[in-house]
Amino acid sequence: MVRDSLGYLKWETEEIKFTNNDFYERILNEEAWGTTYEALQVGTNNFTVGAGTFSCINYERYAKSNPDETLLPGLDKVYYSDGIGLIYETTSFVSSNIPVAQKRLDTYNIVE
After folding, report:
1. In terms of Cα–Cα distance, which of 77, 86, 76 is closest to 106?
2. Where do the domains of the chain lie?
3. Is 86 helix (H, G, I), strand (E, B) or coil?
4. What is the DSSP letter of 57?
5. What is the pLDDT of residues 54-111, one digit of tens each?
6. What is the helix, strand, coil percentage profile of the chain, to 5?
7. Which residue has the higher pLDDT, 22 or 74?
8. CA 54 to chain centre
């Protein structure tokens, strides 16, 4: 379960899952090999999936090696549309620039 909290989507544990107003690089996880980050990207994009075309904000997840902070090849992209939710998301290994999985919105139904 997640909830909206002043521009942040938070887990029940109060950890931030997503933000729509904070463009700074945020640490997600620190390990001996490196650190995983995410950053909201400036602006919106039109993104098309099976359910249609949506105006989305997006953020990227990536990792940097320790101790030199070299950017690693893996890059995940996540797109959210206001009022709809998650539109598209990739999942990658930090060692590869090719995603191993994708989530796409195929259909949706808004209940009022």
Report:
1. 86
2. 20-104
3. strand
4. E
5. 999 999 999 999 999 999 999 999 999 988 888 999 999 999 999 999 999 999 988 8
6. 0, 60, 40
7. 74
8. 16
